[in-house]
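Figure 6 in text form: structure in, sequence out.
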């Protein structure tokens, strides 16, 4: 991991788009308390959140898609969107030595992400093999998607990169729908599907015991990250800003349309990262990227996004912090007694206070120009 503490080296001072950092921060906002704040608000206002809101703030049990399901694929998408910018800085020339340095950086980043994933969700710090989960976390899916996208970006054209993403989604569909499980094809049950069989066979006792799958689903992680890479190529291109927005919107609408049609045969199931779900989430990611880019970098309306940028600039720090520490305890210590006097609004007060504590820590890092990268 690298810590930058210099105004000239600070990422926000270089050739990166503020909209990407803001969108990353917007995504992280929901991870670090946004959902609980919204739920608490509705609880105070109406006694409980309406069913439609509650659905969007949770994961469907199996089949279906909610706004909350967007968090993980949007994270992968943003990682991909940043890659054309970061790789262009690292690949200052096309020499083999320079490319080998990039490969070394990619491998190091993949290893660190896997270790951090095991710390965050894989029980690594318990130091017990019987509790260790080797592959069970969003950071590890990012490592997989990043590795796939990086190898392709370093070796093939943009057209082949896009085609590879399509091929991975198609290959995953063929495997999931036409390889038999228990003598039957097209089985997509929580504990009975091809991806689950692969995970159980390879990971064995190191699985996390949930209905989420990881190894074969890596094809989907790679495709989702590549969709972000395509967005990054669009944003980095010499096209006029208006044309970039139209390309992003067009890609988003196209992914949504294909994903919805595909879901009629290959349902949207986030737990196993079906191809239709990947396209549906990718479509919304393209549209969110278009909206943030248009408002922030084209129209220059930036002040509203500052709070998200603070989060997005140190996303890895806050992700690990909220997985390792329970900031709600600090929130309860500060306002717990007061909140008891505001029946109905107590959850909102506690969750908002916890979020503010985290955000102020990130603001301090931002003001000190401390940015942690992998």
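Output sequence:
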């Amino acid at each position: 991991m690298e810590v930058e503490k210099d105004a000239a080296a600070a990422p926000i001072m270089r050739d990166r788009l503020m909209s990407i950092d803001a969108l990353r921060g917007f995504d992280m906002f929901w991870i670090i308390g946004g959902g609980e704040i919204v739920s608490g608000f509705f609880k105070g206002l109406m006694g409980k959140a309406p069913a439609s809101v509650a659905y969007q703030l949770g994961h469907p049990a199996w089949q279906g898609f909610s706004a909350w399901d967007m968090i993980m694929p949007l994270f992968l998408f943003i990682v991909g969107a940043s890659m054309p910018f970061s790789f262009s800085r690292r690949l200052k020339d096309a020499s083999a030595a320079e490319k080998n340095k990039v490969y070394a950086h990619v491998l190091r980043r993949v290893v660190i992400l896997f270790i951090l994933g095991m710390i965050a969700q894989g029980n690594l710090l318990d130091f017990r093999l019987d509790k260790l989960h080797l592959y069970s976390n969003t950071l590890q899916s990012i490592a997989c998607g990043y590795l796939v996208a990086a190898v392709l970006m370093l070796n093939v054209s943009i057209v082949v990169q896009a085609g590879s993403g399509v091929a991975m989604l198609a290959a995953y569909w063929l495997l999931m729908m036409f390889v038999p499980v228990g003598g039957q094809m097209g089985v997509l049950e929580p504990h009975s599907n091809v991806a689950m069989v692969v995970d159980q066979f390879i990971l064995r006792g190191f699985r996390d015991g949930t209905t989420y799958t990881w190894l074969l689903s890596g094809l989907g992680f790679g495709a989702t990250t590549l969709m972000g890479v395509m967005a990054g190529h669009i944003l980095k291109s010499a096209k006029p800003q208006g044309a970039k927005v139209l390309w992003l919107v067009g890609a988003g609408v196209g992914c949504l349309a294909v994903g919805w049609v595909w879901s009629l045969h290959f349902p949207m199931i986030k737990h196993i990262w079906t191809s239709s779900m990947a396209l549906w989430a990718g479509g919304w990611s393209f549209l969110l990227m278009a909206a943030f880019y248009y408002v922030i970098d084209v129209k220059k309306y930036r002040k509203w996004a500052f709070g998200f940028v603070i989060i997005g600039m140190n996303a890895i720090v806050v992700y690990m912090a909220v997985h390792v520490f329970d900031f709600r305890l600090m929130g309860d210590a500060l306002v717990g007694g007061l909140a008891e006097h505001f029946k109905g609004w107590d959850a909102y007060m506690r969750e908002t206070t916890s979020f503010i504590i985290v955000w102020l820590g990130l603001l301090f890092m931002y003001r000190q120009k401390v940015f942690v990268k992998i």
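Caption detail: DSSP finds 14 helices and two strands in the chain.
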